[in-house]
Amino acid sequence: EVRLVESGGGLVQPGGSLRLSCTASGFTFMRYALSWVRQAPGKGLEWVSVETGNGDTTHYADSVKGRFTISRDKSNSTLYLRMTSLRAEDTALYYCAKHKGGGTYNFDSWGQGTLVTVSS
Amino acid sequence: QSALTQPPSASGSPGQSVTISCTGSNSDVGAYDYVSWYQKHPGKAPKLMIYEVTKRPSGVPDRFSGSKSGSTASLTVSGLKAEDEAEYYCSSYAGNNKYVLFGGGTKVTVL
Question: Could B34 and A108 be called an inter-chain contact, meaning their C-beta atoms sit closer than 8 Å?
Fold first, then answer.
């Protein structure tokens, strides 16, 4: 069974930094692309970032480009999202999502999310 | 404002059908057959219902179907059940620049 467990969220001041983690199990970690998707309070889903299965390609939404960095650690099957220069509009529930397969752009497994609140 | 446009709400009685639209452009929905639909209940993670316009993942009832015409994709839920009441989101691949775009979501109410 695929399992994705996010952690690392919390309250941070504007301009601050945070690192989110997503521990994966139940599938071959390096074989699948993994994304971060967020949902601000009362808003819809917003794709944030992706890293391909072999880790050689990353993409970012314009809203986070230059501030967020996605990475993964094969040794502990963990996906990370390093967030810097945080803004109030980054406040959201952040989900880790597994892509369905190679060359696909849909997410067949999701974690339960970790909440990030940016406020002074 | 979301990149893909969905109606904010839709409704139907049990047993009826409801269709949700998802309008994009010729840079996303119109350009690629990578439209997906997700069901989201409050407090729960999204669930993939349709991928690559028309395909259903294992375990998703065949009451759920997808289609696309030009830059508009649609999700139809037939034989509505109370458990279908949820928010539904469409998404589309949009090339390496924007990668994946989501719609704003449609709240489906079973009357």
Answer: no
Pairwise CA distance, residues A71 & A90, whole Å:
19
Determine which helix (DSSP H) or strand (DSSP E) holds B78, and give its type and residue range: none
Q: Report pLDDT digits (tens) over B39-69.
A: 999 999 999 999 999 999 999 999 999 999 9
Return all residues near A107 (Cβ < 8 A) that are at least 6 apart.
A35, A37, A97, A98, A99, A100, B36, B38, B46, B48
Judge contact between B23 and B1, C-beta under 8 A: no
**Alpha-carbon separation of residue B68 from A28, B32, B36 (angstroms):** 33, 10, 11
A23-57 pLDDT tens trace:
999 999 999 999 999 999 999 999 999 998 888 89
Q: Is A115 on the interface with B (CB under 8 A)?
A: no
- What's the angle, vertex CA B51, arms to CA B45 and CA B55, rounded to 5? 125
Determine the pLDDT at residue B52: 95
Query: Percent of chain A, pLDDT > 90?
Result: 92
Count Cβ atoms within 10 A of the Cβ of residue A21 and give its class: 0-12 exposed, 13-18 middle, 19 or more buried: middle
Query: Can you give the pLDDT at residue A102?
Result: 67
A47 → closest Cβ in B51, B100, B104? B100
| Mutation target vs A (from B27, B36, B56, B99; most A CBs, 10 A cutoff) | B99
d(CA B48, CA A62): 25
Nearest in space to A79 (alpha carbons), one of A115, A49, A47: A49
- How many Å apart are CA B100 and CA B83, to the nearest integer? 28
Run of H or E residues at B91: strand B86-93
